[in-house]
C-alpha cells in the first residue's frame, strides 16, 4: 500500500513539461533533426564503415621486421618471420616442415628421434645414447 501512495505523489513527465512551459513563456522547443534514411554519408561506429589506413608491409619496408616486438627479422609473403624457428618458413621462405617435424636452426628436424634436438631444439643426447620418443636413452 505504501508503494502505491509513493508512486502517486511523483509527478509524471507530462506534468513536469507543462509546469516548465507555464513558468518560462519565452522558452521554446528545439526543432527535431531528421535522421537520414540511408547509411551513405553517415559515420558509423564500426570499423568497416571507415576506410582503413595503409599498412606497412615488409615487402615495401624491409626494416619493419627489425623493429622491436616484430615476430622475426625476415620477410616472407609480406609477413615478418624468423626463418630459423618458423615451421612454415624453415631456413628459407616457403620451406615447410612436415607434421612431426619442427624448425631448429633453420633445419626441419624430428625431435622424437634426432640426437642433436631430442625432445626440443638444441637438446643433444650424450655421446653413445639414442633419442626415442623425444627422450635420451629411453630404453637403454
Question: Biggest sheet, strands in spatial order?
Answer: 1-2
Low-confidence stretches: 3-7
Total strands: the figure is 6
- Outline the biggest β-sheet: 2 strands, antiparallel
* Overall pLDDT: 76
Q: How many angstroms separate the termini?
A: 87 Å
What would you report as the Rg, rounded to the nearest angstrom?
35 Å
> Could you give the order of the helices and strands?
HHEEEEEE
The helix/strand class is little secondary structure
Q: How large is the share of residues in beta strands?
A: 5-15%
Q: What general outline do the C-alpha atoms trace? A: elongated
Measured as a percent range, the helix fraction is: 10-25%
Contiguous helical run count: 2
Features:
140 residues, little secondary structure, two-stranded antiparallel sheet, 2 helices, 6 strands, disordered N terminus
What does this structure look like?
With 140 residues, the chain is low in regular secondary structure. The protein is 14% helix and 11% strand. The protein has a two-stranded antiparallel sheet. The longest helix is centred in the N-terminal third of the chain and has 11 residues, at 13-23. It is elongated and about 100 Å long. The model is unreliable at 3-7 (pLDDT under 50).
